[in-house]
């Protein structure tokens, strides 16, 4: 896992709930990774967490409990509660996605409003090491249990599925920046070609803030 900048407070409390990301890297002769039906159902399962409340209500609730009050103030950091609207739903906006590799300049990917990038969105070099870096802003309220889910198919068969818990984040003016675990693309004749993928950013109650459906290539070299 890369190191986060401005990482969300209380990430350490999410460590036990984190699931390790399965890398796309594997030998071409290895069988494709497939999730079981139970795992797929777990991803889609909806957990009832009770009604959402605004930040001001968060602070008023249990205000007589000193330890809880300090924890909430730590979570909110420098948020100006008086400047935050009385909104129950958090607003999370993914600002950018970037592929970072020592082999080449960063590949900055434009995020279309439709969530459907046109054509092949990017090309990866076979056998190359890279990280995915993204930035996002949180407004209005605390977002709990933000997670990243990515699924990849080749010729209609699922070859990779990964999920990573990012943490709990309070609203702030500056964007959060998160660097994903370093991955290595597969190599060899059978690894090259076109892939399709779906990427989603969800919170604890499965509210989706961004869903991207796209295609990409793995080739002998980076795209010129």
UniProtKB/TrEMBL annotation:
A cellular component term, taken from the record's GO annotations: membrane
Compositionally biased intervals (Basic and acidic residues): 1-17, 46-58
Compartments (UniProt record): Cytoplasm
Keyword list, A-Z: Cytoplasm
Entry-linked InterPro entries: Ig_E-set, Rho_GDI, RhoGDI_dom_sf
UniProt KW Cytoplasm keyword: yes
Chain residue ranges for the region called Disordered: 1-58
MF GO annotations: Rho GDP-dissociation inhibitor activity
Pfam family, one: Rho_GDI
BP-aspect Gene Ontology terms: Rho protein signal transduction
Protein family according to the UniProt entry: Belongs to the Rho GDI family.
Name of the featured protein: Rho GDP-dissociation inhibitor
Source species of the chain: Artemisia annua
Taxonomic lineage from the root: Eukaryota, Viridiplantae, Streptophyta, Embryophyta, Tracheophyta
């Amino acid at each position: 896992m890369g190191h986060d900048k401005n990482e969300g407070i209380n990430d350490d409390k999410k460590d036990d709930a984190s699931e390790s990301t399965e890398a796309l890297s594997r030998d071409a002769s290895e069988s494709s990774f497939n999730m079981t039906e139970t795992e797929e159902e777990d991803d889609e399962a909806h957990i009832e967490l009770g009604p959402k409340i605004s930040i001001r209500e968060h602070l008023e609730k249990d205000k007589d409990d000193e330890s809880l009050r300090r924890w909430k103030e730590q979570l909110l950091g420098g948020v100006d509660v008086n400047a935050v609207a009385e909104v129950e739903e958090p607003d999370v906006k993914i600002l950018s996605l970037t592929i970072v590799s020592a082999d080449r300049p960063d590949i900055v990917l434009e995020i279309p409003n439709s969530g459907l990038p046109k054509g092949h969105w990017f090309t990866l070099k076979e056998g190359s090491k890279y990280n995915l870096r993204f930035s996002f802003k949180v407004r209005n309220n605390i977002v709990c249990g933000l997670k990243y889910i990515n699924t990849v198919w080749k010729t209609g068969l699922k070859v990779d599925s990964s999920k990573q818990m990012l943490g709990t984040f309070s609203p702030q003016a500056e964007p959060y920046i998160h660097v994903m675990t370093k991955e290595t693309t597969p190599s060899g004749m059978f690894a090259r070609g076109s892939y399709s993928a779906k990427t989603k950013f969800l919170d604890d109650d499965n509210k989706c803030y961004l869903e991207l459906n796209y295609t990409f290539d793995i080739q002998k070299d980076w795209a010129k």
